[in-house]
Amino acid sequence: MRTVPVTMEAVFCKNKPCTLTVRDDAGREGTATGPAPEEARNRAVTAEELETRLKKTGCTAYRCQTVSVTLEDGLSVSAATVNALRRDALAALTALRTAPPKRRVLSVPPLEKASVYTGEPALTCSLACREQLTQELLELRPERVYLPLELFETLDALPEFDGEYCAVLPRVWRDGDEPYFLELLEKAAGLGVSAALVGNLGHLPLLREKGLSLYGDFGLNVFNAWALSYLADKGLQSATVSFELRGAQIRDMPKALPTEAIVYGRLPLMLTENCLVRNETGCSCRRPYALTDRTGAAFPLLPAWGHRTELQNCKPLYLGDRDDWKRLGLRYARLRFTTESPEECVQIFRDYLSGGDAPAEFTRGLFDRGVE
Do 169 and 207 lie in a common domain? Predict the structure, then answer.
């Protein structure tokens, strides 16, 4: 167990309460007092004996480095007194170390004046599998096509189109994954990927000097203008706002970066550390699976990086039958394709271009009501 080094100073004087002060390497001090030592009847205690007793921090979080003992001659100190002094002094130090810092109240920093984008957003699309990447979809001219990084394990070529290919980086990964992570990213760049979709601030150190444009994904939880300003300072060139924002909040947000929002698709509800499909049936998670609740609603399970599972909403967000999402100051509007067939991807994209009727099963998400 990792322990905290401390020093101790103890004072034992006749007719005075004994004291013990414990100090950590940051200068914090915990002090305890005990009863006055008694006169020795047979043999007086020695400073060396007291030092040995005080050093016995046992199974605490502390490790005693040095003990300074001031002791008058001819005194007796019981083991119970020494143990209580040490226990109480360490408890006082622990209380100081774990106390919350004093709350600071700072003024809100002013934001730089942001330009207001008044045009309609360009449509982008994110795909979950290689079958959804069809020529018919690319002919609709999405501004960006987002592809999960793990797809490049099997992709050997990308069809040409006028927009931009972006690799979607996993929101959760382990340090041991990074060499393979970077290997796939290099392969993707060689196939024509020119940007990375960042869903975790931990991606940024890995992407330095990679020559890729960096765009923020929903995993960064952009909820206000200060978050956009922060990401702009970090070198991102656009960012996706949280899908928990209402449309009015997105509209009124000053935008220091070109901003994107998800306007179609099943929204992710949960990312599990373990593969739910493997735990139940063995490793066959590329087949379609779903969790069904007591009402009969099916929540699709998508495979995620590291043999994890991403649980999707049972109904897709749909805004294609209304126009207000086009007037939010967005530069980009994303269609998030997950379980759709290639034909459905094309049809939905066309519906968003021209305005199509809502499907039988859909949700408005939090676009109107926000987080309750």
Answer: yes
CB 140 within 8 A of CB 350: yes
Cβ atoms within 10 Å, residue 297: 13
Residues 340/346/347/352 CA torsion (nearest 10 deg): 100
Whether 302 contacts 310, CB under 8 Å? yes
Q: Is 317 among the domain residues? A: yes
Domain identity same for 154 and 252: yes
User: pTM higher than 0.85, yes or no?
Assistant: no
The CATH code of the domain that includes 251 is: 3.20.20.70
Among 34, 128, 44, which residue's Cα sits nearest to residue 82?
34
**pLDDT tens digits for 49-91?**
999 999 999 889 999 999 999 999 999 999 999 999 999 999 9
Q: Is the pLDDT of residue 286 over 80?
A: no
Number of domains the chain is built from: 2
Side-chain-facing half-sphere of 14: CA atoms under 13 Å: 7
Shared domain for 90 and 129, answered yes or no, is no
CA–CA separation, 288 and 368 (whole Å): 31
Task: Judge if 59 and 18 occupy the same domain.
Answer: yes
152-184 tens-digit pLDDT: 999 999 999 999 999 999 999 898 999 999 999
pLDDT at residue 16 in the model: 94
User: 3-state DSSP call for residue 264?
Assistant: strand
